[in-house]
Design goal:
The structure holds 2 protein chains of 2 kinds. Chain A is mainly alpha-helical. Chain A has 2 domains: 36 residues, no CATH class; 107 residues, no CATH class. Chain A is built from 6 helices and no strands. The two termini of chain A are 29 Å apart. Chain B has 3 domains: 92 residues, no CATH class; 37 residues, no CATH class; 83 residues, Orthogonal Bundle (Arc Repressor Mutant, subunit A). Chain B is mainly alpha-helical. Chain B has a 3-stranded antiparallel beta sheet with strand order 1-2-3, with no helix packed on it. Helix content of chain B is 57%, strand content 6%. Chain B contains 9 helices and 3 strands, in the order H-H-H-H-E-E-E-H-H-H-H-H. Classes of the chains: A mainly alpha, B mainly alpha.
Chain lengths: 153, 233
């Protein structure tokens, strides 16, 4: 990696010079896979066994990372499910509930959010209970969307 | 110890796609060369602090990557190998070289402590020493000074023999000799050297391969087979 000129310090001893030589040799970004393996062999390292050990280790780390991702997903799910049980109860007359649903849809549309998820619901003909359930579902959808946004950050 | 964090789906996917068969040996090679020349309590070149050998450093880097301890942002560092080599492994090597386990402990003189002799870490790589070849000792005794001087002289003698063997073998190879001069001035980046010499970087990489063979030969003629090598074959 590049280094500023003012950070450079000429080697004062052979040991420092040799260390610089090894650093230079470590920056070998042009080696082919065969050259890397051949070089390791010259160092007394069996490249085949080395790769096998490495792949086994990586597989182990991959599984652990996957488990952590699953655990996090489960935790998110748990939070969402917790949100369902604590969903808000919407009060109001039929007309007020219809207005709330419409207002929410307009807000979603302005945010570019698809309405298809609830388009099958004919909320104009829905009962008060249906509208309350619909508003609660909309809350959950917003919760999920917020969590996804958070995750994608 | 830092807690492990889950990876984003994007990073997880990119790690799935990575060519580890190619990357892993390169990481070990990078660690192997990075540790050489740095100061380690055990002077066999490859058995480092905390019982690490160079391959452990490569594995630590992968562990830290998958564990989210070292955060890889593919948008910022597109190349995973470059990120692991220069951001993760270099940092681990520096950390190990300066770790408590790489200290030499010494006894304070009895006059320093009324309760008797206590063991304290007193010998640590200087923070501004790039290769940790300089040591700090708060209260050296004459025995410490003699021991350290002898050890430093021994290490310097070893380096001198290897450097001289490299210089002898490189004689007549203008590019390799030019590279060696640059490394003496602490210039170690192939692209920088190519630019300074006004030659394509490919020429420097080719010379780097020749120098690598020379250095390997010089080192092997000097050093006995060490533990790490025996354990790997």
């Amino acid at each position: 990696m590049s280094q500023d000129d003012d950070q450079r310090k000429p080697a004062a001893t052979d040991r420092e010079w040799l260390a610089n030589i090894y650093d230079f040799l470590s920056e070998a970004d042009d080696l082919t896979d065969d050259e890397v393996r051949e070089g390791l062999k010259t160092e007394g390292i069996d490249p085949g066994k080395l790769v096998n050990r490495g792949l086994a280790f990586i597989e182990q780390q991959r599984k652990l990372a996957t488990n952590r991702m699953l655990a996090e997903a489960r935790e998110r799910q748990r939070q969402v499910l917790g949100g369902f049980t604590r969903s808000k109860h919407y009060e109001g007359s039929l007309a007020q509930l219809q207005a709330m649903v419409k207002e929410r849809l307009v807000a979603w549309s302005s945010q570019g959010i698809s309405q298809f998820a609830i388009a099958h619901r004919n909320f104009e003909g829905a009962s008060e209970n249906d509208l309350r359930a619909l508003l609660a579902e909309m809350d959950q959808l917003e919760l999920l969307r917020n969590q996804k946004d958070e995750q994608d950050k | 110890m830092e807690p492990l964090k889950p990876l984003s789906e994007n990073v997880q996917r990119k790690l799935e796609e990575a060519n580890w068969i190619s990357i892993y040996p390169r990481l070990v090679r990078h660690a192997l060369y990075r540790v050489r020349g740095r100061y380690w309590r055990r002077n066999d070149g490859e058995n480092l602090a905390k019982g690490f050998v160079p391959e452990d450093i490569a594995q630590q880097a992968i562990h830290d990557l998958y564990g989210g301890i070292r955060t890889w942002d593919p948008n910022k560092d597109a190349d995973l190998l470059t990120f692991l080599k220069y951001s993760v492994i270099d940092s681990i090597v520096d950390g190990l070289a300066r770790s408590g386990d790489n200290l030499i402990t010494g006894r304070f003189p009895e006059s320093m402590n009324d309760d008797g002799v206590v063991l304290e870490p007193t010998n640590v790589a200087s923070p501004d020493a790039k290769h940790a070849t300089s040591l700090l000792r708060a209260n050296p005794t004459p025995e410490n000074i003699l021991e350290e001087t002898q050890e430093a002289e021994g290490r310097e003698r070893e380096a001198k023999v290897i450097v001289n063997a490299i210089l002898d073998a490189a004689r007549g190879d203008e590019e390799v000799m030019a590279i060696l001069e640059y490394t003496m001035e602490d210039v170690k980046e192939p692209r920088f050297i190519a630019k300074s010499l006004g030659v394509p970087v490919g020429k420097i990489y080719a010379a780097q391969k020749r120098l690598n063979r020379i250095a390997q030969k010089a080192r092997q003629e000097f050093l006995p087979l060490n533990d790490f090598q025996r354990g790997s074959s």
